[in-house]
């Protein structure tokens, strides 16, 4: 599999995305369980089959672009509203960037590290892959200048707190299902979903500025655009209200760009035990 990864990493984005679109539909058509989960999640958000159809291809593109992003040449990334990051960092209390499973979220941390990492590195929360070979590739690819990683453990939370207190940045996928005990049940598109509280807690504990981000995948392999947006303020709200405000903001963002959301992700699954 490592050899396949290395071969794919050498291919141009336009070809990877073309192959990825075909892969997305192949998996969708051949896996009844994936198709049911995908369709149910999209319907829960109020989307019809025709409205969610483009996201089938997008999921395949996401899968096949990963080898290039981890092992290949840098991809073109432009910024939309980078001044929001500049302003947030200037406050000196750190920045919490939340990025849902929308677009190419893998590129977001890389692009931030390249632009801001020399002075304000980003610490990204992640869960290592289960396959040993893939976890090793993942760890090597993310070990780059200005980019640090933190595991989904108590030690990882301490690492992120330390980064924010130093005025740096942390990156979190807020719609990822956390381990049991690290979240609460909260409405997401009108259905209870076990929801990570970490982004809200970090912002409230440190006074850090919270921003939303999503990395748009451009057509025909032209690269990506990293969009930065204001997030709901976390200060002055209790934990439940802050988390509800965050989920509403994510829902709005996802519905605006539903064709690039990962609807196949098991958002409503039961949390696992550590």
Short description:
The chain has 274 residues and is an alpha/beta fold. It is built from 11 helices and 9 strands.
Indicate the topology.
Elements: H1 2-9, H2 13-30, H3 32-44, H4 49-52, H5 54-71, E1 77-80, H6 83-90, E2 95-98, H7 105-116, E3 122-126, H8 132-142, E4 147-151, H9 154-165, E5 169-172, E6 183-188, E7 191-196, H10 198-206, E8 209-217, E9 224-230, H11 239-256
Parallel strand pairs: 1-9, 2-5, 2-8, 3-4, 3-5
Antiparallel strand pairs: 6-7, 8-9
Helix pairs in contact: 1-5, 2-3, 2-5
Question: Main traits of this protein?
Answer:
single chain, 274 residues, 11 helices, 9 strands, 48% helix
Commentary on this structure:
The protein has 274 residues and is an alpha/beta fold. The chain has a domain at 76-257. Helix content is 48%, strand content 18%. The chain has 11 helices and 9 strands. A 7-stranded mixed sheet has the order 1-9-8-2-5-3-4. It has a two-stranded antiparallel sheet with strand order 6-7. β3 (122-126), α8 (132-142) and β4 (147-151) form a beta-alpha-beta unit. α1 (2-9) packs across α5 and α2 packs across α3. It is globular, with a radius of gyration of 18 Å.
Apparent shape: globular
Uncertain runs: none
Overall pLDDT: 93
Strand order of the largest sheet: 1-9-8-2-5-3-4
The number of E-state strands comes to 9
Q: How many helical elements?
A: 11
Taken as a percent bin, the fraction of beta residues is 15-25%
């Amino acid at each position: 599999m490592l050899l396949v990864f290395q071969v794919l990493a050498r291919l141009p984005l336009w070809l990877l995305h073309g192959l990825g679109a075909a892969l997305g539909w192949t998996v969708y058509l051949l896996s009844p369980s994936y198709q049911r989960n995908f369709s149910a999640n999209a319907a829960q958000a109020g989307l019809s089959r025709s409205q969610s159809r483009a996201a089938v291809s997008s999921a395949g593109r996401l899968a096949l672009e990963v080898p290039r992003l981890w092992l290949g040449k840098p991809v073109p990334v432009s910024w939309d509203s980078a001044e929001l990051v500049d302003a947030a960092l200037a406050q000196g209390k750190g920045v919490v960037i939340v990025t849902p499973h929308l677009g190419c979220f893998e590129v977001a941390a890389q692009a931030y590290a390249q632009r801001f990492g020399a002075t304000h590195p980003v610490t990204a929360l992640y869960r290592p892959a289960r396959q040993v070979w893939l976890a090793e590739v993942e760890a090597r690819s993310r070990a780059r200048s200005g980019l640090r990683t933190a595991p989904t453990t108590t030690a990882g939370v301490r690492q992120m707190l330390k980064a924010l207190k130093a005025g740096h940045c942390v990156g979190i996928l807020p719609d990822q299902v956390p381990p049991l005990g690290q979240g609460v049940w909260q409405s997401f598109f009108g259905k209870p979903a076990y929801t990570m509280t970490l982004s809200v807690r970090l912002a409230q504990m440190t006074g850090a500025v919270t921003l939303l981000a999503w990395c748009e995948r451009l057509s025909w392999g032209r690269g990506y655009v990293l969009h930065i947006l204001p997030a709901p303020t976390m200060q002055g709200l209790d934990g439940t209200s802050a988390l509800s405000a965050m989920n509403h903001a994510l829902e709005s963002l996802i519905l605006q760009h539903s064709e690039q959301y990962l609807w196949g992700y098991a958002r409503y699954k039961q949390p696992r035990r550590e």
